[in-house]
Structures are given as C-alpha cells and as structure tokens.
Amino acid sequence: MKTKLLITALLFGIGTSAFAATYSSPIEEALVNGKALAPLPINMQTKAGIEALQAQTHSTGPISMELTRLVLFKDQPLCGRIKNAPYQESTKTHFPVSNSAFNICNDGTPPLRVCVEAPQKLVRFDAACKDGKPPVDTAEVAKAIKDSIASGDLSSDQVKQKLSKTGIISAK
C-alpha cells in the first residue's frame, strides 16, 4: 500500500514531502502527534547540564527535550498539557530529571483563561478582568494541572528549583 502511494505520488509529480506533515514548532507536533523532540540550545545556562547528562551516558550525542502530550483540551482543541524531559536519541536514554509538564497551545501561548465573574467566557491569559484581578485557569486546565501533580509531576516552582540544582538552568 505504501509503495502504491509513493508510485502514485511520483506519477502525478507530487513529491513525497506532500505526504509528510509539517509543523511550525515541536510544541505543535507534540500536540498533534503526541510526541516531538526539540533540540536543546547549547548556551551558558544549558551547557553544564547537557555535559552532565552526556557524562551519564558516556556519549557526546546531542540532548533534546522530548515533548509528550498528556492531555488535549476539549474546550480548546489547539491546546493541551505537555510533559517534557531531556532525551538523548543516540543512546535512547530518557532523563527523568525534570518531571515537569506545562499547558500550552499550538501557537506557543498559554491556554485561554476565565474571569471569576464570567466563568463561561474565555479570555487571554494576560487579560484584565472587571474585578481588577487576573484571569484564572478554566476548570479543564486546572484539573489537568491537579491530575499531573497528583501523578508525580512537579509544580512549576518545584521544576525551577530542581533544574537549577542540576545545572540545566541557572538559579537566576
């Protein structure tokens, strides 16, 4: 079947890349496919952490972040909760050092939120509510966070603390 599709594509002048989905970011790919790899940039903040992970595997192969979709939100289908952890593809090594997850949409922004006085109306994460308070997570997003932490994932503050101890990010 795959061979027939390839031959058909070539006969009609369609390159095989027409069958490959393209994504604007690894986040979008993870939301759509469930998984993606994002290369880690080597800079002052990440260099020591990358080298420490490479020392564990005795390989200088690149370290990427593996993004895994945990939940795709029903009310905001272009958004979901993604777990991320360092991964070295050359050695097939997963490093569960961060145990973190985050909520994000395919365009890189956080999911929409709600104002307490209007819980049915979705607003941007940086909107100002009539009561002067910032908007809060929707019930669906709040549940995803609660479930994630209950399953052993760390809160955002715990992740920052743990990553700064490992040297993957600076404490600043």
What does this 3D model show about the protein?
Mean pLDDT is 81; it is low at 1-20. Helices cover 30% and strands 25% of the residues. It has helices at residues 2-11, 26-33, 47-57, 139-150, 156-166; strands at residues 35-39, 64-72, 79-88, 93-94, 100-105, 113-115, 118-123, 136-137. The relative contact order is 0.14. The protein has one domain (24-166). The strands form 2 sheets. Strands 1, 2, 3, 4 and 5 form a 5-stranded antiparallel beta sheet that branches. Strands 7-6-8 form a 3-stranded antiparallel beta sheet. The longest helix is centred in the last third of the chain and has 12 residues, at 139-150. It is α+β, with helices and mostly antiparallel strands and 172 residues long.
**Helix-residue proportion:** 25-40%
* Low-confidence blocks of residues: 1-20
The biggest sheet, with number of strands, parallel, antiparallel or mixed sense and barrel status, is: 5 strands, antiparallel
The number of distinct β-strands equals 8
* Terminal residue distance: 54 Å
On the 0 to 100 scale, the average pLDDT is 81
Structural class: alpha+beta
The total count of helices amounts to 5
Backbone shape: elongated
- SSE order, as H and E? HHEHEEEEEEEHH
Relative strand content: 25-35%
User: What's the gyration radius in Å?
Assistant: 20 Å
Number of discrete domains:
1
